[in-house]
Design goal:
Number of domains: 2
CATH architecture of the largest domain: Alpha-Beta Barrel
Distance between the termini: 14 Å
Structural class: alpha+beta
Largest sheet: 8 strands, antiparallel
Helix content: 25-40%
Radius of gyration: 23 Å
CATH class of the largest domain: Alpha Beta
Number of strands: 8
Order of helices and strands: HHHHHHHHEEHEEEEHEE
């Protein structure tokens, strides 16, 4: 079962890579790629990044830069033309990206002596081994990510959870604004949380497929049945079922990496598949009573 599940995700990623490599001149439709991989956009991004070490968008950009490097060395096309082919709207933006990747601006890279710049090396470092090759649709063998810190995962059967929420629209790292509104509403309504109450965040969108200012998430607190919610709070239900749980100890800024290891490394090897429902985080403490390195966050992933 484990090998079959691993094969399912590898095949999904393989199809996505083939689609990306075959359409370098087109803008990425990440929702369509996720659909082709038979995954939701939210989960697709994390599975892909966890298995290959870069997101679909990062892979697309890198391959375009490698193709641009090849064009600079093998053609007399103006740098502006190469920049447009690589998907950049201005010469300046392309120059900044190219310099960051290759250590030299495009014109200097094209003119450098082989002994100084080794211009024949157009491949940029990539754990996946996927590179631009003008003679083939793909060069090299995909090396799926097997490394990284091991995550410890428990499978839990959860009851349905009733949550009082405040919606946040915008970058996920700013969800603390919604938690502040949640606290004010609760205080004004005279609500008293019990020791069993849990603060949590529910995320609905994939940052790779939706602009940051349109991302939707909920800041919430679990509440007992029968408790009336004040105006401004909305009831959400996290469905009962089986969930994969891992705990992160440390700053919230590292949560994205933990999600990547859970989705991209543990899940494909686990024999499980993602189920219906939303992934969510439960905060066991907070920056008000714990140092950043002592923050404890439980991550829950619904399983089929």
């Amino acid at each position: 079962m484990r090998s079959d599940t691993r094969s399912f995700y590898e095949a999904a990623v393989e199809r996505t890579v083939t689609a990306i490599v075959g359409a370098l001149d087109e803008a990425l439709d990440l929702s369509a790629l996720a659909k082709g991989a038979a995954l939701s956009p939210f989960h697709f991004h994390r599975v892909f990044r966890g298995m290959l070490g870069e997101t679909p968008l990062e892979l697309h950009r890198r391959l375009r830069l490698e193709r641009a490097a090849h064009q600079l060395l093998q053609s007399a096309a103006p740098v502006t033309t190469v920049a447009f082919d690589a998907g950049y709207e201005t010469h300046e933006a392309f120059t900044r990206a190219f310099r960051a990747a290759y250590g030299a601006p495009p014109s200097a890279f094209r003119q450098a002596e082989p002994l100084n710049c080794r211009p024949s090396q157009i491949e940029l470092p990539a754990r996946s081994g996927i590179h631009f090759n003008p003679e083939a649709s793909r060069d090299g063998t995909i090396r799926f990510n097997e490394g990284g810190q091991i995550v410890t995962v428990d499978i839990e059967t959860k009851r349905e959870i009733r949550v009082a929420t405040v919606r946040h629209v915008g970058p996920y790292q700013n969800i603390s604004e919604a938690f502040a509104r949640l606290g004010k509403l609760a205080t004004a309504a005279g609500l008293m949380w019990t020791d069993e109450s849990q603060m949590l965040a529910i995320y609905y969108d994939d940052p790779e497929t939706k602009p940051a200012d349109q991302l939707e998430s909920d800041a919430g607190v679990t509440v007992p049945e029968g408790l009336a919610l004040p105006s401004g709070m909305v009831e959400r239900r996290l469905p009962a079922g089986r969930y994969a749980k891992t705990t992160h100890v440390g700053p919230y800024t590292r949560l994205g990496d933990v999600w990547g290891r859970l989705m991209g490394e543990w899940l494909p090897k686990s024999g499980h598949r993602v189920g219906d429902g939303s992934a969510y985080e439960v905060y066991r403490n907070n920056p008000g009573n714990a140092a950043p390195e002592d923050l404890r966050t439980d991550l829950y992933l619904p399983l089929a």
